Amino acid sequence: MKVFIFSIGEQTTSLCARLMKSFGFNVVILDGKESNYEKYKRFIEQAHALGEDVLKIDADIIPNGYVRQIYEEANSHRLQSALMIQYQHYCIYRNGINIGNPVFYRKEALAIISKNIDKIDPARPEATAWRLPEINDWTHTSDLVVGLHGVYQRHEDIDRHEAHKIDRKQIDGYDFSVIGELKELCD
């Protein structure tokens, strides 16, 4: 299965790619200097052209061995009708389990999103794709924890992530004081 890695130059990009390769995935790194929305549109275009199911992961996720179970789980009898499946990771910013990354895309979901790309909110492309009426009833959140998020990030990336959570009014549940202490330990 192909995995598309979304990178904005995170220090963990090559580690994420190396691990995904070692877990049996064919890796495509999308690391252009573009908005997340433009990157998402490029991902949908490239993934849809493949005509197969794919996985999307952010480069600041360090995948673990449970990521190997994604293809098997997605194709189990229980989930064979799910168009998109989101997985969980341990998030250092939250200091706990977080939902949402990586995301499995069935080829049918890619076709639907491609056809509705003009309905995708540039501020939240993946979230609005998930909520498309043709997809939303066919989504699933897995219990698998398949990675670690937020370690070994540059100070500016941590600051950007915190600002992003504040802008989205999602800061509750995040403990950026822990990150502040970790930044000091890394200096």
Write a structural description.
The chain has eight helices and seven strands. It has 187 residues and is an alpha/beta fold. The protein has one domain (2-152): Spore Coat Polysaccharide Biosynthesis Protein SpsA, Chain A. A seven-stranded mixed sheet has the order 2-1-3-6-5-7-4, with helices on both faces.
What's a quick, concise take on this entry?
This protein has 187 residues and is of the alpha/beta class. Helix content is 40%, strand content 25%.
The overall average pLDDT, rounded, is 89
Number of distinct beta strands:
7
**Would you state the CATH class?**
Alpha Beta
Number of helices: 8
- Order of H and E elements: EHEHEEHEEHHHEHH
Give the overall shape. globular
Q: What is the helix content? A: 25-40%
In the predicted model, the low-confidence regions spanning at least 5 consecutive residues are: none
Q: What fraction of residues sit in β-strands?
A: 25-35%
For this structure, the CATH topology is Spore Coat Polysaccharide Biosynthesis Protein SpsA, Chain A
Q: Give me the secondary-structure category.
A: alpha/beta
